[in-house]
Design a protein that fits this description.
The protein has 339 residues and is an alpha+beta fold. Among the domains are: 114-144, no CATH class; 149-221, no CATH class; 264-337, Sandwich (Immunoglobulin-like). The protein has helices at 108-112, 129-144, 240-245, 255-265, and strands spanning 27-28, 42-45, 48-52, 57-59, 85-92, 98-105, 149-150, 179-182, 187-189, 192-194, 199-202, 214-217, 236-237, 251-252, 266-273, 280-284, 292-298, 303-305, 308-311, 316-320, 330-337. Strands 1-2-3-4 form a 4-stranded mixed beta sheet, with no helix packed on it. The protein has a 4-stranded mixed beta sheet with strand order 7-8-11-12, with no helix packed on it. A 4-stranded antiparallel beta sheet has the order 15-21-17-18. A hairpin with a 4-residue loop joins strand 3 (48-52) and strand 4 (57-59). The protein is flat. The two termini are 38 Å apart.
């Protein structure tokens, strides 16, 4: 086997309860040094699994026979054909093993102890369906208080400065706090100019045509000029060179400049490896960086493969495997971020 084919994990490994298949423990013919080794290390020592517990090696091959503690009583060992059996007692011995289980049937007294009480809200009593219905309806009604309630149809303001046209409620017979209208024409609400798209919100019930009872939002926003690479509106568009440089904090990127940045900063390529005999392969990517990551698949079934991938220079990586590959057995994709 190729001794260079080693993958080092400088972190814990979580397989999310996946199985370890075709795996061997590290084999020793003499117990290894435990200097600085935390408890939990498991090895194969002369054909038997041993674990270091922090003080000594424990032979895991020793068999443990669980003691038999037959239950003196178990009412749950047969099917219940009627009633409802409740667990009422569990006894254990000094070792913590269960030695007795007891049960009893649910009685009318148990059921009667839980009764309706619509007068209070507690963790002891339950409510009738009528009480629950009333409570939910009241809760929904309270949650709507102060909410913004959209009024279909919009609002046409007065054409005369200093006056106000009262809005017309649609979802209610009278104006309520929180009703909101979208203004559909330019005009006046008292001495405030408004334009299409502004919003009028009632601050109180029965607001009528009194301007003090309303709030205007989004008023006075000027027309927005479209931003381009040469014209500055709300924000100016960056050129490809500016986007790649990444130093301008006042200009925006477009799909075009974003692609330019990705093309300049992210490098990727795919190679086929395997020649029928080799266990070591050198791939020259030419990206002038050692910060290279990989992902590898077996072509026959597209299964992901972990292998040793080591940058040997700023333009090359070395791939090592345990056994030789058939011609083009694997495909490997290298990816790098260029600073």
């Amino acid at each position: 086997m190729n001794n260079n084919a080693v993958i080092s994990n400088n972190a814990h490994q979580d397989n999310f309860f996946g199985e370890l298949r075709r795996t061997r423990f590290q084999q020793f013919t003499s117990l290894p040094s435990t200097d600085g080794v935390p408890a939990g290390w498991v090895i194969d020592y002369k054909g038997q699994l041993h674990q270091w517990n922090g003080t000594e090696w424990i032979n895991l091959a020793q068999n443990y026979v669980h003691p038999d503690y037959p239950l003196t009583n178990n009412p749950f060992q047969t099917d219940q054909t009627s009633g409802l059996m409740l667990l009422s007692q569990i006894l254990t011995n000094s070792s913590g093993h269960v030695i007795k289980i007891a049960g009893r049937n649910l009685t009318n007294a148990d059921i009667v102890s839980i009764f309706l009480n619509d007068a209070i809200q507690s963790g002891t009593f339950t409510w009738s369906s009528n009480k629950i219905k009333t409570y939910i309806e009241n809760l929904i009604g309270q949650s709507l208080t102060g909410a913004l309630i959209y009024q279909p149809g919009g609002y046409i303001p007065s054409s005369v400065k200093g006056s106000m046209t009262a809005p017309s409620p649609v979802t209610s017979a009278t104006i309520k706090t929180g009703m909101v209208w979208v203004i559909t024409a330019s005009g006046w609400i008292g001495n405030e100019p408004v334009s299409i798209g502004d919003h009028l919100i009632a601050n109180t019930d029965n607001a009528s045509g009194n301007t003090a009872n309303y709030q205007i939002i989004e008023k006075g926003i000027p027309d927005i000029v479209d931003a381009t690479e040469s014209v500055k509106g709300l924000i100016q568009v960056a050129t490809d060179v500016e986007a790649v440089a990444g130093t301008d904090a006042l200009k925006a990127m477009t799909p075009k400049s974003t692609k330019a940045v990705l093309d300049a900063k992210i490098k990727s390529g795919t190679w086929q490896i395997g020649d029928g005999s080799s266990v070591t392969f050198t791939i020259t990517h030419g990206w002038n960086t050692r910060n290279v990551d990989y992902i590898c698949y077996r072509n026959a079934d597209n299964r992901k493969i972990n292998l040793s991938c080591v940058p040997t220079s700023v333009n090359d990586v070395q791939i090592d495997v345990l056994a030789s590959l058939t011609p083009n057995e694997y495909r490997i994709t290298l990816t790098a971020r260029i600073d």
